[in-house]
Amino acid sequence: MKVLKFGGTSVGSAERMHALVHLINEDAVKIIVLSAMSGTTNSLVEIATVLYAKQNQIARQLIDELENKYKEVIKQLYKTETSLNKGKELLDSHFNYLRSFTMDLFTVNEERAILAQGELLSTALFHFYLEEIEIDSVLLPALNFMRIDENEEPDLKYIEANIQAELAKYPNTKLFITQGYICRNAFGEIDNLKRGGSDYTATIIGAAIRSEEIQIWTDIDGMHNNDPRIVDKTHPIAELSFDEAAELAYFGAKILHPTCILPAQLRNIPVRLLNTMQPAAKGTLISSKTTGDSIKAVAAKDGITAIKIKSGRMLLAYGFLRAVFEIFERYKTPIDMITTSEVAVSLTIDNTKNLDAIKKELEEFCSIEVDSDLTIVCIVGSFTAEKQGYALRIFDALKNIPIRMISYGGSENNISILVDTKLKKDALVALNKGLF
Ligand code: ASP
Ligand code: MG
After folding, report:
1. Is residue 214 in contact with ligand 1, taking CB distance under 6 Å?
2. What's the total number of domains in the chain?
3. 330 and 204, same structural domain?
4. What is the position in ligand 1's atom list of the atom closest to the CA of 38?
5. From the alpha carbon of 181, which atom of ligand 1 is closest?
6. 195: Cβ below 6 Å to ligand 1?
7. Which of 174, 196, 218 is the last residue of a domain?
8. 36 CB under 6 A from ligand 1?
9. 187: buried, middle or exposed (CB in 10 Å: 19+, 13-18, 0-12)?
10. Residues near 150 by beta carbon (within 8 Å), at least 6 away in sequence
């Protein structure tokens, strides 16, 4: 069985939904995971934000506007009166539900229920369309099997047991449709896998059913060797290892949700990144295969804050780093890059929510300097220790760019460099020239 995930733009209009049918219509058994239509989750976030601010009148307006968009979509999506009526009933029920939040108390639970409407709508609308054109399919409610635990991690055991049970009800069905992004949490409440989480849904399902392949369909032809929005002449990478893809997704390649590689890697299921606009293009294949020593790609992650921590007590001491890391752990703040010298350590974070509290605790035993608006430029490939010359090529390319921090040797797949965000474009262009 294959899992195919289609993002927001792939279901972004009636026309795109019509075109989608050609991509899923071959004979193999498959599960289709859909995002919300593009723009919908952003609108739902906006609706929730104004409801928090108790601007219920504005919320009602925004809900009306979104509903009007969907009314247009169903007019173009369906040919028959029956389907159109089904579509209308569906919109009535979802948008009246959204309106019900404008009368009542609004908390984080209501917010999550609102955010779930986008995927519930796109999958139901597409399912009705398949019915209209007489393609047999079953709509599997993700809320019946997708679940996260107390640590907001996917509960793979639960998911596996429950999706298998759902699938077993339909032994003769070849085409299943389900919602990306949405799930239940440990308390059984509606929740989600965070923005962009439909990719994660697809790989979690792929792992749960031990799928033969997971396909992530977007509107670009695979992962590129550099950011195509910033650098001219980038090209899609034909093959990546799981580790390389995970580094790229985490360090800025927007095409994939940062944690979505993990479930596929766990069960060794290949992930193919494909383009709905050019279905014949090869895209990128992500698998356990490593394709030898080489520099594969460059990605950049903005919004980085560096903290330099200095203490005479660090000299010839042990336990200093543990004391530092414990503070970050207590404030649930992940550290991205680290470099150390004998009396100082520099590290970077991207979540600054608890920075003030962290600073206060650090200042009890060391002096610190904080710098913001930095960018991590991450060079990904296979850099085995035996091969020489990678560092030279990278730093030669960057010879005119001031570098704040360097991290080399942490893994065989990543060399990270910290620069001022103002110099990000220069750095990416220079690396493109020097490396590819
Ligand atoms: N609809 C959600 C979002 O826009 C999830 C996704 O598309 O992956 O973030
Ligand atoms: Mg996405």
Report:
1. no
2. 2
3. no
4. 4
5. 5
6. yes
7. 218
8. yes
9. exposed
10. 186
Entry pTM: 0.91
Ligand 1 close to Cβ of residue 12 (< 6 A): no
98 and 213 part of one domain: yes
SS3 content of the chain, % helix, strand, coil (to 5): 40, 25, 35
Atom of ligand 1 nearest to the CA of 7: 7
Alpha helices for 116-216 (secondary structure H): 117-132, 156-168, 198-208
Instruction: Give the residue carrying structure tokens 């506007």.
Output: 65
Q: 415 has which bridge partners?
A: 379, 408
Whether 234 maps to a domain, the answer reads: no
pLDDT tens digits for the chain (436 residues)?
Answer: 999 999 999 999 999 999 999 999 778 899 999 999 999 999 999 999 999 999 999 999 999 999 999 999 999 999 999 999 999 999 999 999 999 999 878 888 899 999 999 999 999 999 999 999 999 999 999 999 999 999 999 999 999 999 999 999 999 999 999 999 999 999 999 999 999 999 999 999 999 999 999 999 998 889 999 998 899 989 999 999 999 999 999 887 788 998 999 999 999 999 999 999 999 999 999 999 987 778 999 999 999 999 999 987 766 678 888 999 999 999 999 999 999 988 899 999 999 999 999 999 999 989 999 999 999 999 999 887 667 888 899 999 999 999 999 998 888 889 999 999 999 999 999 999 999 8
